[in-house]
Specification:
This protein is an alpha/beta fold. It folds into 2 domains: about 200 residues, Metal Transport, Frataxin, Chain A (2-Layer Sandwich); about 160 residues, no CATH class. It has 14 helices and 14 strands.
């Protein structure tokens, strides 16, 4: 089955679906089994997820299929997603970049309709990639084909869609499948540019607030640029005693984190390398201050070593420092791997190489991962021990060596 065949099955069978949703219904089963397989997900960014809805409790008035960037949102109701929206006679479908109407409802209440329209217009006027060619348009979509008792959600979808292409399902042929996927690729490119102008992709409200305050596009670009700039010098770090890591694991009883630690076999780009170097320099300063404050360790300050610079980058750690072993009542060497991000989220996924993981296993009690985050604004550091990584984190291999 391909996407066009699914659309045709849907169009022929959904019109009479009313009342309580039945998950055993053949059409629901078809979506459940086929939708995840209809998109070239192996070519999508890792953060992309495919979702769909034929209703929640009751059959939906406006069903949808969505491709969501989990870096931006986890739901079509919030953030911005690529969404296939069906008209309410189920004979037509729009491919859209659509804002989450529920977010506007929850935050702006009576001003939700006005504000979502304002934000849509802002994106339409400023995103250069929104080309009005080959059927794509920034004109408002229209989902209503027959009367509705409660059209508010439908109107929210319409106002939130700031880029779209329309299809009449009966006109689509199997031979159009390639064109349909090419259109999706164009929409993904637009989605990618949209993401690049967000002040904080994980909190789209930050950008929305600036737009509603009347900020010019150039001003928002400057905010984003400043946020992504690498500082000229190492930042002072604030230690974070964050128990959410441990608490999260106790609550699910599985001993696994929801956040992902991914081994990285991909070379860092220039920005990441500069940021990583500055993060390591900041940790060097942090360690010097920490040891100076501890009378049991102060005599070892001059022995702290930036090992990745002194000995090379293949050690599996960046810094050699010292900590006090309470049970043995003596100072011991510790091996610190530094992971730095500009994101203001201590649990932002990070990458570890096979070598780093091997060193972690070898050194275990003496291995630390210093997670430096929110680096460009107010840098903080959270210290993870080897057991945090081994027992609680989810290690997700993202690249493999193929050898014959």
């Amino acid at each position: 089955m391909n996407l066009i065949q699914l659309f045709k099955q849907f169009s022929s069978n959904f019109e009479n679906k009313t009342g309580n949703l039945n998950k055993k219904d053949p059409l629901y089963q078809l979506f459940d089994q086929q939708v995840p397989n209809l998109f070239p997900t192996n070519e999508f960014p890792l953060s992309y997820k495919v979702k769909w809805s034929l209703g929640q409790g009751r059959w939906a008035t406006i069903p949808w299929i969505a491709i969501i960037d989990s870096d931006i949102t986890d739901s079509v109701q919030r953030g911005v997603s690529i969404v296939y929206l069906f008209t309410n006679d189920y004979k037509e479908v729009y491919l859209t970049l659509d804002q989450g109407w529920t977010l506007f409802q929850n935050i702006y209440r009576k001003d939700a309709a006005k504000n979502i329209t304002t934000v849509s217009r802002f994106f339409q006027e400023n995103l250069k990639i929104l080309s009005k060619k080959n059927g794509f348009t920034t004109d408002q979509i229209s989902l209503k084909r027959k009367p509705l008792q409660s059209p508010q959600l439908m109107r929210g979808y319409e106002r939130g869609a700031f880029y779209s292409k329309h299809y009449t399902i009966s006109d689509l042929q199997d031979s159009d499948e390639t064109s349909l996927l090419e259109d999706l690729t164009k929409m993904i490119l637009a989605y990618t540019q949209f993401k690049s102008i967000l002040i904080d992709p994980r909190n789209i409200s930050t950008t929305i607030e600036q737009i509603l305050k009347g900020q010019q596009f150039s001003d928002i670009e400057k905010i984003v640029q400043k946020k992504n700039e690498v500082p000229d010098s190492p930042q002072s770090l604030t230690f974070v005693q964050d128990n959410s890591f441990e608490a999260s694991n106790r609550s699910n009883g599985q001993g696994k984190r929801k956040r992902v630690v991914k081994p990285n076999y991909v070379e860092k780009n220039k920005f990441q390398q500069q940021l990583g170097d500055l993060g390591e320099d900041s940790v060097m300063q942090f360690e010097q201050k920490r040891l100076k404050k501890d009378p049991r360790l102060s005599h070892l300050v001059n022995k702290i070593e930036h090992s990745s610079k002194v000995k090379g980058d293949g050690l599996g750690y960046d810094i050699t420092s010292y900590d006090y072993n309470e049970s043995q009542e003596k100072a011991e060497k510790i091996f610190i791997e530094v992971k730095t991000t500009t994101a203001n989220n201590v649990h932002e996924p990070f990458y570890m190489s096979a070598n780093e993981l091997d060193t972690l296993k070898e050194q275990r009690a003496n291995y630390r991962v210093y997670r430096v985050f929110n680096y460009n604004v107010s840098a903080k550091v959270k210290i993870f021990h080897a057991e945090d990584i081994q027992q609680r984190a989810h290690l997700n291999p993202v690249k493999f060596q193929v050898k014959f």
